[in-house]
Hints:
The structure holds three protein chains of three kinds. Chain A is α/β, with parallel strands linked by helices. Chain A has helices at residues 3-6, 40-48, 87-96, 118-137, 154-165, 189-197, 223-244, 246-249, 265-279, 290-297, 312-321, 350-365, and strands at 20-24, 102-105, 143-148, 170-174, 202-205, 255-258, 298-301, 326-327. Chain A is built from twelve helices and eight strands. The model of chain A is unreliable at 1-12 (pLDDT under 50). Chain B has helices spanning 21-24, 30-39, 72-83, 102-119, 138-148, 173-182, 207-228, 230-233, 249-263, 274-281, 295-305, 333-339, 342-347, and strands at residues 9-14, 85-90, 127-132, 154-162, 186-192, 239-242, 282-286, 311-313. Chain B has an eight-stranded parallel β-sheet with strand order 1-2-3-4-5-6-7-8. In chain B, helix 5 packs parallel to helix 6 (173-182) and helix 9 crosses helix 10 (274-281). Chain A: Residues 20-366 form the Amidohydrolase-related domain. Chain A: This is Amidohydrolase.
Amino acid sequence: MSSSTLQAPVRSEDAGIKLVDCDIHPTVRSMKDLHPYLSSRWREHLDSFGQRFRQAFVSSTAFPKATPALARRDAWPEDGSPPGSDLALMQRQHLDANGIDRGMLFPLFPRALDERNIDCAHAVCRAINDWQVAEWIEPEPRLKGTITVMAEDAEGAVAEIERCAKMKGFAQVALVTRPIEPLGRKRYWPIYEAAAHHGFPLGLHNSGNNGHAVTGGGAPSFYFEEHQAVSMSLHAMVTSFIIEGVPERLPDLKIVVVEGGFAWAAPLGWRMDGLFDRFRGEVPHLKMKPSEYLRRNFWWTTQPMEEPEKPEHLRQLLDWMGWDRIVFASDYPHWDSDDPRHAFKIRMSEAERQGIFAGNAQAIYGDLLA
Amino acid sequence: MGHIATTGMIDCDIHPAVPGMKALLPYFDAHWQEVIDARGVDGLDLAYYPPNAPISARPDWRVPGRKPGSTLADMQVQALDPFGISRGILNCLYGGPAMYSADLSAAICRATNAWVAAEWLDKDDRLRASIVISTQNIELAVDEIERWAPDRRFVQILVLGAHEALLGQRHHWPIYKAAEKHGLPIAIHAGSAMRHAPTANGWPSTLYEEHCSFTLTFQSQLLSLIAEGVFTKFPALRVVMLESGIAWLPSFFWRGTKMWRGMRKEIPWVDASPAEIVRERVRFSLQTWDLPQDPTYLDQLLEQIDADDIFLFSTDYPHWRFEGGDPTRGLPKALLSKALRDTPLATYPRLKETT
Amino acid sequence: MSATATLTRHVVAKVGEIPDKGSKLVKVKGRPIALFHVGGEYFAISNVCPHEGGSLCHGKLIGLIRSSEPGVYERTRPFEMLQCPWHGWEFDIRTGKSYCDPDSIKARSYAVTVKDGAELAEGPFVAETFPVSVEDQYILVEMK
Lengths: 370, 355, 144
């Protein structure tokens, strides 16, 4: 029996939703766009001192990306403002053209999740959250928001979740995936408890720079390496969540791993299980095998699409991880984004397709997509 | 599986344990002997394998009063004789490579190599060894390679899985030049000098998490070796990954190849896909800890890896990787067919020589 | 029937309207074609990237970057490699072949010629929706 028959994708409850995109990046034309949502104290601070990260440059990341603004070259608005800053273009080029019924906003720029000044980070996170509602979600109801919070101060993060939970249009909570300590550590748990309490999944998109080298062996030289190392940091993040006991403590918490690929999902479970017996004495708080938490609490987005040497290997991967564990994401308007019409090079049944493109996301987000 | 019956298996990863600095002392010069005594330099077991942690030794290989794997007699009785090992490669994991002082680091590596030669290689013909080096100072590392390379019982060069800088970076290249010249593969073993947090995400609470995540460091090291052009510059060099696991290979192949297609202009000397380079130039030791239980999935995994000549058999003695008297137990036949002899012999030309 | 008998030349642009190192998206028999101008030469390839369908006319023209030695970057054939606007795969604008997998991954390329308006008046060229004047030169794409 093939395991794909065992793991039937979840049926869509709202047949009107046929395509959910779990990763869309809106941005500002400039920091001025956030001014209406910032107090004068923080407007002046940002004007004078700007944001401060754990990196050498004022406004570039340490590894120049593949393209300017890491964007698809065809996504620049005609007036030259940054890709992702023009709702009308996003609607025309992506939402309408690709038939996106629901899109999850992931604001990465301006970057607040790993700002070093914690008060400033909270102010910018709050502004970004208000800006999402006012400038994206209200004018375009297909879009859903992500509550961005500053993880290093859990108390402040919880307060922001509480504030946003009273607003309409948010569907998940996001924090930096490379915080100062691995995300499973207890200092971050109040954030997860607040998210679970309000029924928000965590949407964890690779982001941030904690000042640690991006690999255990030091910093790489090339973007070719760094881009992959950042994906790998999500493997470490999932490992941390499970082994530190977050899903054991919060069995209903849903964690969506965004933009890290998914070919590693099942093999990570095999590895954790393989070592489990030797290390049980160190983790008596784990009541199930690690792969069981993986299978219960985690989901992955499709982008950046896995491209096996033989396309049919993709089907094997999905069998391994479960067809109900994967949701479509485009990453619009970034350079390595995927097109829903071309990303999958395998034939899928109608049920498989429906699960990946809509049903699984509905199972995760439920009414939050309404 | 039953492959144990075919005699002559080659074990590519055995760990002789340094009992302590006292045992190494005769192999230092007078200056360092005095320093070690005066400052109490000792306790250099690496943190990835705390001696009492279950993974560090099989319970039935623990002998009261001494570290597992710290005497030749134990190794002979517990592994070499019962498993019928015709050749075993000693990879001594001790703290020399992790010292910050380049001089002390090199001195400990040198004493470790001398100790391995005198206490192990001289006393059992079946044994071969890796030259332990520190990458803290590259000139001293090359000196150490040159010192031992003429001794044909040293069959490869061993470096820690993580140190100050990723291994592809070009200041390391004199090591690879020496390795290529002497026909010695470079082995990278799980473990870290802890110059950096174990992952990009910082310091985890548990040893368990570190062992699970070390695959990421292996992948980063491979990417570095590929991207910097080590395989281009040193066409005869082979790299061996010890205790890396293998289930991450398909994901690594596909992601690396996809990124190479998009970004190869950043590293134009890389004129083959990462998948192609790894299959041709990199070898992986088995005791794997990341194989799926479902035999169908295992077949699919091996089909995706699509290379039957990249695996090297190992017992990983005295680490606790398997139970009972058959170190091949639990390893799929498809992996073993070449891993027991053919691939080790192809990887280590010196293994064919008699001494 | 010979291959040449079925080829038709389609007038797709006027010389001068595409700046050097620029591109134009044109349609020939309903097919989107990316037309490029490099130093007075014109090239046409299918606008649809064989990977994920990126619109190649939005791509960036770069040199052919190769290397004889790590750390050495040798740039030849300036602006003759097209980098897809999405995932950055490189295509040779003369052949449409991808750099990394030239035999199996390629964008279809089409022959391009430049003709005087006066010649075009005589035919047999297809200038579907394109006004032609005798004073100018025109770019033609060959297609079955």
